[in-house]
Design goal:
The structure holds 2 protein chains of 2 kinds. Chain A is an alpha/beta fold. Chain A is 36% helix and 13% strand. The chains are: A alpha/beta, B alpha+beta.
Chain lengths: 480, 481
């Protein structure tokens, strides 16, 4: 089998046995990128091998190529959140996750396309144009970490990092037929992740299988004194939970998730997955998460409010794009702000900045932002209660499989509903994983989501691994 | 409204205080004034994308100390909020501040205004980050930003509208500054911008229970400017009200050269700051014990020190007040009292010659070459008559210049007084011989000429004669003769 098509743990075994070298893998993956990325457009920037020489020559034991979402700072590399407004911005520092990975020898092979500032579920909102789904290049790869998901699915990277604010790792993982984990809020340092919504963002792995997911989480998790929202909670070796034993575990199926709008093939695949868990010895019962219906509305208030503030720094003063109109309209400085932001941000970014600015405005704050935070607490309490009884809650990752490019681009509301099942985990701060659980008739992948209580990534990986052992989905190959 | 007598001025002050922590409030950069522009910066204080703030615990400690000194309640739930606005000196597009839960609230300080004690309420004091500094380069037709100041810990202290005159505002600021100096949390230097002040003023009928329309005055660069600006505004308000005009609620800028204020922006143009809780900083809860511990190790505050100095050292109200005006002087005084029991002499020397030298040199006592033991030794030299009081002041100057011990300077400069009676007798004999006429006149009753003889003798002794002994010898000789 081609090296590029293998999982990280398979490749690492071969490096350890000296059957192959890290350079062999790098060659193989770069060859694959050259062959297929013209069709997929997963990457916005590739990073030369020379720049990875420190990793390649060091003592790290994880010398496989990793793709990085374009919102995670890599020192000296242009990092733009796939936005025009950050063009030319080369951070003088690396995100904590990048430093951690590089210490372990990881090869940062390139930066992947995304919805601008992670605003979207299709990767169409990118200043670089859309990425494509490797299973059907007429379809979106999902988003916002669509470039990372497509890169892994198309074997253009061995594994990848994405970020997840409302489903941006899990939904593209689902659309691309790979594994995507959003860790507990605070499990992974956000230092160096260009913020979308600070209280919701988490960096997480996108991988070909569950074992790789556990390995990559091992590498990036842990407290960081540069991020006071990162949790000082010990990091176990997550691979020890890949036991293939789920006997006696209790799975809750939230009735509020199996509603109108859920595509029949997705419903069927998820139901079959439930049967699989039963066969493996887990007990399954219905559970209620009564505030589910408010999740999307709550999310779009909280997330846009934080985003409107987080994006204020892109003002054309210190870095990135700067535009000054030819003639003075208001004052030179206000003109500079307006022109820079008008030309620098895409439509979805502008829409969210306006929504967020509105809900924080004097006179509206109580009705929107404050109310949103209160509902958020209720949503969290739903999960707290569910996890008193259940080890996990099982849902579809997205109500549909990958949709066609352009299909929802003109209809933001229907696009927002693509994240209807993933948003709650971010609002509640809990971990959630998406794993492949089948295909539609059109051979588009379907994803299954598992959620657990805070810092119970071990439980998610244990369940996901057991399911993966019993099913063939992760071994299916893309038609490229 | 038509009677000026029925009007009353209402003033509230906002003081911004830079805290002198080693590092900035949310990053590890050094917190220092007067360095090469943009040399004290990092991704965090530059607000680079992806960077995150981490609270400096020292800044929080200082803030709590201030809260305690202002007799305020300490807010045990510490959280920060974002204040959103655009300005080129604000690299994140928002300032991390505290909105609805300031670290300190409901405090007060006692001031003395025109001899009477008065309580001025402190509405709130909160912790926040300072912005950078814009430098307008007119010659290059551009503006430059220095981010060194960005992230300097700031405490904003907001008084209640309890102040009733510009003079009271001045007295409040003086007392507040002194209190803050005693906490060692800030340089409190208006020239360096480590203490800044904005003033709110309105005028109303004395009988009114609600406040009149206020104006906020900015660009106040000294306490004097605060007082002058408030006097100007109080007059302006009164004139307008008496003539039946309305006051517009607005922010005005003080022009120190013209000694007047000009409008800056009206209420309609005021920002909507869209405050919301800062999601990048986790709120923390202070325990009762932690606050109590800070209370326990609080430095002595000026009012307490004043009281104690009067009691413990039997100083007059005035002397004690002068000594406590600068914490370093008060400390110096106390150090001296451990070395000598001549309390009154020490006090006089410090508030006299030493203070005069400090003023002349425009420095604080802590930067001078003066140690308590040297000052006490100097006082001893003067008291024993080894040198004259006048020479003592010269010796003090030289001590400050060189850091040498007084005995060394007296020796090197040959300033020791002639207190040897044989020697003095010889000098007097010579003067009597040279001035026999004058001696005769004195004997005839012209006693005022005595001074002439003393002067002549002192001249012969090159000023080093012990003046007391000299006078005694001359008097005896005339009587004896």
């Amino acid at each position: 089998m081609n090296l590029f098509a293998q999982s990280a743990h398979e490749l690492l075994d071969q490096i350890r046995s000296r059957a192959i070298s890290p350079e062999d893998i790098d060659d193989s993956v770069r060859g694959r990128i050259a062959a297929v990325d013209g069709r997929i457009k997963a990457y916005v920037r590739l990073r030369d091998r020379e720049k990875n020489s420190a990793s390649l020559q060091g003592n790290g034991s994880f010398k496989v190529p990793i793709a990085i979402k374009d919102n995670i700072c890599v020192k000296g590399e242009e990092t733009t959140c796939s936005s025009k407004i950050l063009q030319g911005f080369k951070p003088p520092y690396s995100a904590t996750v990048i430093s951690k990975l590089q210490e372990k020898g990881a090869i940062v092979i390139g930066q992947t396309n995304m919805d601008e500032f992670a605003f979207g579920s299709s990767t169409e909102n990118s200043a670089f144009g859309p990425s494509r789904n490797p299973w059907n290049t007429d379809c979106v790869p999902g988003g916002s970490s669509g470039g990372s998901a497509a890169a892994v699915a198309a074997h253009e990277a061995i594994w990848a990092l994405g970020s997840d604010t409302g489903g941006s790792i899990r939904q593209p993982a689902s659309f691309c037929g790979i594994v995507g984990l959003k860790p507990t809020y605070g499990r992974v340092s956000r230092y160096g992740l260009i913020a979308f919504a600070s209280s919701l963002d988490q960096i997480g792995p996108l991988t070909k299988d569950v074992t790789d997911c556990a390995l990559l989480l091992n590498l990036i998790a842990g407290h960081d004194e540069m991020d006071s929202t990162s949790a000082n909670v010990a990091v176990p070796d997550y691979t020890q939970f890949l036991t293939n034993d789920v006997k006696g575990l209790k799975i809750g199926i939230p009735k509020e998730y199996f509603i109108e709008g859920l595509d029949a093939p997705v419903r069927q695949a998820v139901n079959e997955a439930v049967e699989e868990f039963k066969k493996a010895g887990a007990t399954v019962k219905e559970v209620s998460l009564p505030h589910t219906e408010y999740a999307v509305a709550t999310y779009y208030i909280v997330a846009t409010a934080e985003a409107s503030s987080n994006l204020a720094r892109f003002d054309g003063i210190q870095y990135g794009l700067r535009e000054q109109p030819k003639t003075v309209r208001k004052t030179p400085i206000i003109d500079l702000y307006e022109e820079t932001r008008d030309r620098g941000f895409g439509w979805e970014a502008k829409r969210r900045i306006m929504l967020g600015t509105y809900s924080l405005s004097s006179g509206y704050y109580d009705a929107y932002y404050l109310r949103g935070q209160k509902v958020r607490t209720l949503i969290k309490q739903d999960f707290d209660e569910a996890f008193q009884e259940f080890d996990t809650v099982l849902t579809p990752t997205s109500p549909t499989t990958a949709f066609r490019i352009g299909e929802k681009a003109a209809d933001p509301l229907s696009m927002y509903l693509s994240d209807i099942y993933t948003i709650s985990a971010n609002l509640a701060g809990i971990p959630a994983i998406s794993i492949p659980c089948g295909f539609s008739r059109e051979r588009l992948p379907i994803g299954l989501q598992l959620l657990a209580k805070p810092f119970a990534e071990d439980m998610l990986l244990r369940l996901a691994f057991a399911y993966e052992q019993r099913t063939p989905w992760h071994k299916e190959s893309v038609p490229l | 409204m038509n009677d000026a007598q029925e009007l009353e001025t209402v003033i509230g002050l906002e003081v911004h205080l830079q805290l002198n922590t080693e590092s900035k409030i949310f990053c590890g950069c050094a917190n220092r004034f007067g360095q090469e522009p943009n040399s004290l910066t990092c991704p965090v204080c530059l607000g680079l994308p992806g960077s995150l703030p981490v609270l400096n615990q020292k800044a929080l400690l200082y803030a709590i100390r201030i809260a305690v000194a202002l007799n305020a309640q300490v807010q045990p739930f510490v959280k920060f909020d974002r204040k959103n606005y655009y300005y080129p000196d604000l690299p994140k597009g928002y300032q991390i501040s505290q909105y609805d839960l300031p670290i300190a609230f409901a405090g007060f300080i006692m001031i003395s205004s025109e001899g009477k004690p008065k309580r001025i309420g402190i509405k709130r004091a909160h912790l926040e980050e300072d912005a950078g500094k814009l430098i307008h380069d007119a010659s290059a037709n551009c503006s430059l930003v220095d981010y060194n100041r960005t992230g300097t810990p700031l405490m904003e202290i907001v008084s209640e509208p309890d102040i009733r005159s510009p003079q009271e505002a001045y007295d409040y600021l003086t007392t507040l500054k002194l209190t803050l100096q005693y906490l060692h949390v800030s340089d409190c230097d208006m020239e360096k911008g480590s203490l800044r002040c904005d003033a709110n003023i309105s005028v109303r009928k004395k009988a009114d229970s609600t406040l009149g329309k206020k104006t906020e005055i900015k660009n106040l660069n000294s306490f004097k400017a605060v007082k002058n600006a408030l006097e100007f505004e109080a007059d302006r308000h009164r004139t307008q009200l008496l003539s039946g005009d309305r006051i517009i609620q607005e922010t005005r800028l003080w022009n120190d050269e013209k000694q007047s204020t000009v409008p800056m922006r009206s209420k309609e143009e005021a920002h909507d700051y869209r405050y919301f809780p800062e999601p990048d900083l986790v709120p923390l809860t202070l325990s009762e014990e932690a606050i109590e511990e800070i209370r326990r190790v609080m430095p002595e505050l000026p009012a307490a020190k004043w009281e104690r100095f009067r009691q413990q050292y039997s100083l007059s109200e005035y002397d004690a007040k002068i000594l406590i005006q600068q914490p370093s002087i008060a400390d110096f005084f106390e150090a001296c009292t451990h070395l000598s029991k001549e309390i009154k002499k020490i006090c006089n020397w410090i508030i006299g010659p030493v203070a005069a030298e400090l003023n002349a040199r425009k420095v604080g006592i802590e930067v001078l070459n003066l140690t308590p033991i040297h000052l006490v030794d100097l006082i001893k030299e003067v008291e024993t008559g080894a040198i004259s009081h006048l020479a003592g002041k010269d010796v003090l100057k030289m001590m400050l210049d060189t850091g040498k011990a007084p005995a060394t300077i007296i020796e090197e400069e040959g300033l020791a007084q002639v207190s040897n009676s044989d020697e003095l007798e010889k000098i007097v004999s010579a003067v009597f011989n040279e001035n026999s006429k004058v001696v005769a006149q004195i004997k005839e009753g012209k006693e005022t000429a005595m001074g002439f003889l003393v002067g002549q003798a002192m001249k012969q002794a090159q000023g080093k004669a012990n003046p007391k002994m000299l006078a005694e010898i001359i008097k005896r000789r005339i009587t004896d003769a």
